[in-house]
């Protein structure tokens, strides 16, 4: 399942949870109150967990991408470093003013 | 609208409304998953629903104390009707007319007290739900009258004594109170018995007790 699909499911689940949780306000009898405090909260928690999962997966993906781009850049830097002309060795020639 | 009389209900509705707007907006627009979108979703899936759940829980726990909640199981309808009746002389109805009990009189008289009283009472309520689902769901009122009874009737005096401490001099001036003091305190003589203050509910009798009166 894609990240987008996970988020869609989380949003729909959270909307259902909110509906169940607000039902008890308008009808405070046994079933609405019990459903709000059990099923409603479980659905809401699962939705939040799904969102957290997507955020973590996305963050890890970004980390991986960053690491890869850093590696490429690093490799590129090493390559360009080798492309630079070699530093001429110091020579012990006659010093000026001596 | 009576719903708006409770600040908790208003808070829950506000949180739920804000959350729903964010979630519907996300579902309708499907914006790219950038940091701002994640923050909005954190509000819509986390912060506001948690606020709604918190307000809803408190509101729900308060709702479970109401007499109308207790009466929403059909086997309790007679109890509720009696308490609602302004002409009834039963103990339950007389207490319901007292402002200290009011529309939460079932809870005040049947709740367990002490530090964890509310938790124990709610756990006991779950037991009631279980029994209702497994045994009493299809029980007729006529049958319920005969079968529903207190699980620990000897403990009920303790609940009476939360208000009527048995230490007050006016209370002790009553000869019957004085004579039965020890028995009342340990629950051997029930305050809500036929010879004392009458049954709390007129329809129900402890097993084996006379149905007259």
Structure overview:
The complex is a heterodimer of chains A (98) and B (213). Chain A has 98 residues and is mainly α. Chain A is 80% helix and 0% strand. Chain A has helices at residues 3-26, 30-83. The radius of gyration of chain A is 31 Å and the shape is rod-shaped. In chain B, helix 1 runs antiparallel to helix 2. Chain B is elongated. At the A-B interface, helix 1 and helix 2 of A face helix 1 and helix 2 of B.
List keywords for this structure.
heterodimer; A: 98 residues; mainly alpha; 2 helices; 0% strand; B: 213 residues; 3 domains; 12 helices; elongated
User: Rounded to an integer, what's the Rg of chain B over CA atoms?
Assistant: 23 Å
Q: Structural class given helices, strands, pairing of chain B? A: mainly alpha
Order of helices and strands of chain A: HH
Described by its quaternary structure, the protein is heterodimer
Q: What kind of sheet is the major sheet of chain B?
A: none
Instruction: Output mean pLDDT of chain A.
Output: 83
What's the domain count of chain B?
3
End-to-end span of chain B in angstroms? 43 Å
Bulk shape of chain A = rod-shaped
Instruction: Give the overall average pLDDT of chain B.
Output: 87
Query: What's the helical proportion of residues of chain B?
Result: 55-70%
Apparent shape of chain B:
elongated
What is the number of helical segments of chain A per DSSP (H or I, 4+ residues)? 2
Low-confidence stretches of chain A: none
| Biggest sheet architecture of chain A | none
- Report how far the terminal alpha carbons of chain A are from each other: 78 Å
Secondary-structure element pattern of chain B, one letter each: HHHHHHHHHHHH
Counting DSSP H or I runs of 4 or more residues, the number of helices of chain B is 12
Please provide the count of β strands of chain B.
0
Total tally of structural domains of chain A: 1
